[in-house]
Amino acid sequence: MASKTGKILAVDDNTDILFALKLLLRPHVELISTETEPANIPSLMEETDYDAILLDMNFTQDAISGKEGFHWLNKILEIDPQAVVLFITAYGDVEKSVQAIKAGATDFIIKPWQNEKLLATISSAIKLRRSRQEASDLKEKQREISTIMDQPFSDFIGVSPGMQQVFNTIKKVAGTDANVLILGENGTGKELVARALHRHSLRKDEVFISVDLGALSETLFESELFGHVKGAFTDAKADRPGRFELASGGTIFLDEIGNLSLPMQAKLLTVLERREVTRVGANKPKSIDVRLISATNMPLKQMAAEDQFRQDLIYRINTVEIEIPPLRERPEDIPLLADHFMKIFSKKYNKKINKLSNSVIKKFNSYPWPGNVREFQHVLERAVIMSDSPNLDENDFHLSAHGSTGDAFEFESYNLEEIEQQVIEKVMRMHSGNVSKAASDLGLTRTSLYRRMEKYGL
Q1: What is the pLDDT of residue 441?
Q2: Three-state DSSP class for 328?
Q3: Which of 35, 301, 334, 411 is most deeply buried (CB count within 10 A of its CB)?
Q4: Is 295 helix (H, G, I), strand (E, B) or coil?
Q5: In whole angstroms, what is the distance from residue 76 CA to residue 124 CA?
């Protein structure tokens, strides 16, 4: 140990042992506390956060069995589960070593010790303690980050029968590790369902990784999802884990899964079947443990019948299927959502907005909401921003630009794919072919919009 680091507590009923330890460790550690009475351990731990505790296995009441040492080991770990405890005893043997490690001790030191070996053991113990604390801090940060990230997803509300069915299914499925497929139009809240499933699962304290597959090109698919090693391709300047590795232990959410090409589907299926990934450029696979949640707005079963989506992959991803109803099919939720968003945006923009009138709600109910809740939220936010009055009327909500009134959207049929094509065509015309603006209005990424345009030959 080149510099003084670490705080050590040594507990032994032999004062000569404690003196020797203090003499040996003082030049190497920040603090060395000694104690002959193990009953004082709790108060000492309350006062100081020790990096390592050297604990005698046998005290005067019981000279050789080690029961007292195990008793105090349990007490220490009750106080601090991350504590690093090193047993010291003059009666060491293999059996007691195994028992000590199984009971939670980090290592086992036999008296008389070799100074260099003891110093190396304590140095390793201090490093272990620091790494445990870092891991604990990272996990706590992850919880905080997840909480912050979940705040925008608190808008997952509804009283309609369709939404109540969604909530009930989440309650039944969340506590399992079953793969879930979420179906619904753009803007209905598919990621809300995925996060709710994760938040109420046994993996809630682990990571939630969201991947927009619609934004991944064929060339980036493997690298992003499965990782790569240094030199695997031109820009691979360092080893990098993929999303599946990062999500191991937690949940991975694959959005827009219907956009995957057949070769990409085959690669994903292999990973799901084997529960292991092989980084691009590597030969050795790595095991993964993930809970898979997928989502799409595309008709996978119809696509499978047309050989555009693998049937065996559908079986893998939809042990349970959750379909979110579009906003136009849940009119009961519109007043609730309107009140919810108005409160949020009034506070956000420091405005006092009165409750919306029945005429405004009636206007909302007559609009098809092609962008669903995402569009609804956008319309309300804009109205609050632009309003100079606490009373909002129908004229404050401009729905026609989104295809609301009159002949804005005269659908030739009620086939969802044909409706989607008409909506894309109209929004593209509205923005004079500007893909970025059209994608923003439609709630899509540019890549996702390009895929749909290619699909419909636009």
Answers
A1: 80
A2: helix
A3: 334
A4: strand
A5: 19
Which of 361, 327, 363, 325 has its CA nearest to residue 342?
361
Q: For residue 72, what are the CA distances in angstroms to 41, 107, 182, 203, 364?
A: 8, 15, 51, 32, 67
Contact (CB, 8 A) for 163 and 190: no
Separation in Å, CA 161 to CA 332, 334, 341, 356? 9, 13, 21, 24
Per-residue model confidence as pLDDT tens digits over 329-382: 999 999 999 999 999 999 999 988 888 888 999 999 989 998 899 999 999 998
Going by their DSSP bridges, the two strands 85-89 and 107-110 should be labelled as: parallel
Residue 326 per-residue DSSP state: P
- For residue 363, the one-letter residue type is K
Q: Report d(CA 223, CA 278) in Å as an integer.
A: 10
> DSSP secondary-structure letter at 329?
G
72 neighbors 80 (Cβ within 8 angstroms): no
Longest dimension (CA), the chain: 95
- Least Cα distance to 121 among 49, 28, 58 occurs for 28
Closest C-alpha to 196, from 248, 143, 144, 251: 251
**Other CB atoms closer than 10 Å to residue 388's CB: what's the count?**
6
3-state helix, strand, coil in the chain (%, to 5): 50, 10, 35
Alpha helix segments (H runs only) across 152-298: 161-173, 190-199, 218-226, 243-247, 262-274
Q: Model confidence over 392-421: pLDDT tens digits?
A: 888 888 775 444 433 445 555 556 777 888
